[in-house]
Amino acid sequence: MRRPDHQTTTLSAEAVLAPYLRDQAAGFLRSLRLHREHSAPTDAGTHRAEEAARALRHAARRISGTLHTFRAALEPGWADQLRTELAWLSGTLAREHAYATRLGRLLEALHQLSGAQLPAARTAAVPAGQAEPAAGDKERAALGVGAARAGALLERRLTLARTRAHSAALQALGSSRFHAVADAVALLASEVPLSSTAPDQADDLLHGPAGLAEQRMLAAVAALPPDDALQPYNEAQDALWHQARLLLRLHRYAHEVVRGAPDPVLTGAGHALDLHRDAAEAAAAASAAARTPRIAPATAYALGVLHADQRHEVEAARSVFRETWPYTAAVTAP
């Protein structure tokens, strides 16, 4: 981990950790108030409500991640309970946004695929001649017909899932469980339950856990399949990449606490892992839609092409990650 600055090595852990948690708690409560103000069923309020929900999720994740990494400086029972509840809340709120983003990604990809040439892998091995282009034309025609139906199918499925996620989020925000979480965060905004060791220096109590978060991130990246094992259609490898993304996020939050800002050299790598997650989930949605009973062959074909396209986006995101990852020695497994 980078050498901590002078401020966080001379201040106590309490002086570093408590203001950060109070700031995040204040951001959580501010976002909650804005979300309630702009959640009326009008077009004017929808965008602001989405922004408020996004800010609410961000604050919840930062508080939860900080409670996880720096548990030793806090009351452990309180930290574990609040962390669990915040994970539930951020996950519940994230689903609606995820379905909307996934639908937009898939419809845009279908639009581009149906109006473009087929991928080179389908035509590169075909020798020049009259019959082969005709076959390619047939495939493109089938894709054009199937794309419209595939888009309609995806829109029905994902819009229904988004509607259900929206209802679940509204139900969660009106539940006694959420009100207990909001009360706990409101208390956190004024008083941070610290352990008896919190008055110790931050260099002793915060930089050790932050360094451990970094080492876990590096170990997760080192466990990723090497370049020569890249298989875009091997969904079983996705879990390792998702784990690396979560651990990178925890490292970024820990870095915010001890350094005052996220680690800037990881911005590109973090963005690549976000794209990887989005593409992998979009590919899974296309594959699930293709298993719908009694769909037309052209629809199934378009969904198959869409699945292949998104899996190649997965591979592209992995390549970008490796190009932007600053710790070269940890990119591939030994």
UniProtKB/TrEMBL annotation:
Xref: SMART domains: CHAD (SM00880)
Q: Where is the CHAD domain?
A: 10-330
Under what name is this protein listed? CHAD domain-containing protein
